[in-house]
């Protein structure tokens, strides 16, 4: 008998490395914030990658659906992701 164990490490957008790809797995629990993020294209299962990290805990820029989008660090810390295998 073969047992395969699949596990995923919970990460947030703020922990993503430069140009590393991931899928959005969980949005913030605040409904209004989640609705605004979905309207901007941050939908579940969307592939996203980090384009730029500003210094001093500044905003983060991401490539999402072919567009560069910026988010404050505090919001990026509330969005869970799953890494996409290279």
TrEMBL record:
A molecular function (GO) term: transition metal ion binding
Q: Which organism is it from?
A: Colwellia chukchiensis
Show where the Ferrous iron transporter FeoA-like domain sits: 11-83
Top-rank taxon:
Bacteria
Q: Which InterPro entries match?
A: Fe-transptr_FeoA-like, FeoA_core_dom, Transcriptional_repressor_C
Query: Known Pfam families for this protein?
Result: FeoA
List keywords of the entry alphabetically. Answer: Iron
What name has this protein been given in UniProt? Ferrous iron transport protein A
Q: Does the keyword Iron apply?
A: yes
């Amino acid at each position: 008998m073969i047992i395969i164990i699949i596990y995923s490490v919970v990460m947030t957008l703020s922990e993503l490395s430069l140009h590393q790809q991931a899928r959005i797995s969980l949005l913030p629990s605040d409904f209004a914030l989640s609705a605004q993020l979905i309207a901007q294209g941050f939908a579940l299962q969307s592939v996203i990658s980090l384009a730029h990290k500003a210094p001093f805990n500044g905003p983060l820029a991401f490539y999402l659906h072919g567009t560069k989008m910026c988010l404050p660090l505090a919001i990026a810390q509330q969005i869970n992701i799953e890494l996409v295998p290279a």
